[in-house]
Amino acid sequence: MAYAPQAYMYTSSITSAFLETTIGICGAIARKICIFIQISYSLGVDDAFLFSFLTMMLYEQLLQDYLQAMKAKEEPKKSALNFVLAQIKNKKIELQRDPNDNEVIAILKKEVKALNEAIGFLEQAGKAEALEEEAAKKAVLESYLPQTLDEENTKKLIEATLSKLGITELKTGRGLLMKELMAEHKSELDGALVNAIINSML
To answer: Which domain holds residue 166?
Structure first.
């Protein structure tokens, strides 16, 4: 669609009025999003693109929450997010771009796993104070993870994927099954649970 200056000017005035009524409620990022949405609609950008753009902001959310935690002096949250953001920065250098949500989720899951291991060692050592700190960090990071499927729904997904791929012999088709599950549903699945269910089906 061609650029429409009049529509843009009209939308900008609406956006300004809208932001004036919401100032103090919306933060800086929210105000930018409001402007982006209004201008995008005036230029004919479709809803699917907007939804994709606005839901792929986990990295930015982590950064914003880290800055807020610093300001509020929330030590466990600040410490947990600081470490994760350092890992994301390394990933960004490796990829030469901002990591997408799936890549950020993988980093979060890796750190949660490391914290679980640390918590186990601290429990055995009886170090209550350090244990409480690591548990708090784990809770912070888990709050950013998508909810994984329970055992019943994981099994249903495995069975549906087997049917979709036409796999009749699980022993020989296991690799293909896992590849498909991880490619399409990685953020929804608990890997250990998936392996346990597949083993029970052999």
So the answer is: 151-201
